[in-house]
Amino acid sequence: MLNLDSPELSETNLYDAIIFTTAQIQPVTGRKAIILISSGIDTFNKTNYQDVLQTVRDAGTPIYGLALSRVLHQIADMEYRPGPVAKTDWTRAERELQEIATTSGGRSYAPENTINLSPIYDDMMENLRVRYVIAYRSSNDLDPNSPRSVRVALLTNY
């Protein structure tokens, strides 16, 4: 009898997936955000890291990243097998996922374990709930020093 084990490492297209998702969500109106649960590892992409950063910076959609790199690193250490997993730069994966999230205007979380993720989800929800963008452009471009009246209103219908 011949048994085939699971492959030690699957190819991941994280960068391509982020660029694809930001393009898909771009035409959506109203408030939007991307919640990304990932190891942060990209092993098989058509895009480079700098392109991803530029894309998320331009997209204006915050990404909330839940980095599973620490958890996966612990599992890899417990079940040590030589191969690609042993050579993974987990710190870099976590750092890149954090930079993607902060560049997009979102946040990154890297829990030590997945036993209780409730505080992370609560923080994400609170962040999404209180996120406001206020912009102002004067109708009087002639005199930048003239006084103006501005009315700010909170709309609760999303």
What distinguishing features does this structure have?
158 residues; mainly alpha; Rossmann fold; three-stranded parallel β-sheet; 3 strands; 8% strand
Q: What is the C-alpha radius of gyration, as a whole number of Å?
A: 21 Å
Q: Secondary-structure element sequence?
A: HEHEHHEH
Helix content class: 25-40%
- Classify the secondary structure makeup into a structural class: mainly alpha
Number of strands: 3
Strand arrangement across the biggest beta sheet: 1-2-3
Largest sheet: 3 strands, parallel
- Number of H- or I-type helical stretches: 5
Termini separation (Å)? 59 Å
Task: Give a short summary of the structure.
38% of the residues lie in helices and 8% in strands. It is mainly alpha-helical.
Topology of this structure?
Layout (H helix, E strand, L loop, with lengths): L13 H12 L8 E5 L10 H11 L3 E5 L1 H10 L11 H15 L3 E2 L8 H12 L29
Parallel strand pairs: 1-2, 2-3
Helix pairs in contact: 1-2, 2-4
Please provide a written account of the structure.
- There is one protein chain.
- This protein has 158 residues and is mainly α.
- It has a single domain (14-129), classed as Rossmann fold, CATH 3.40.50.
- Helices cover 38% and strands 8% of the residues.
- Helix 2 links the parallel strand 1 and strand 2 (63-67).
- Helix 1 packs parallel to helix 2 and helix 2 packs parallel to helix 4 (90-104).
- 20% of the residues are buried.
- The model has no long low-confidence stretch (mean pLDDT 80).
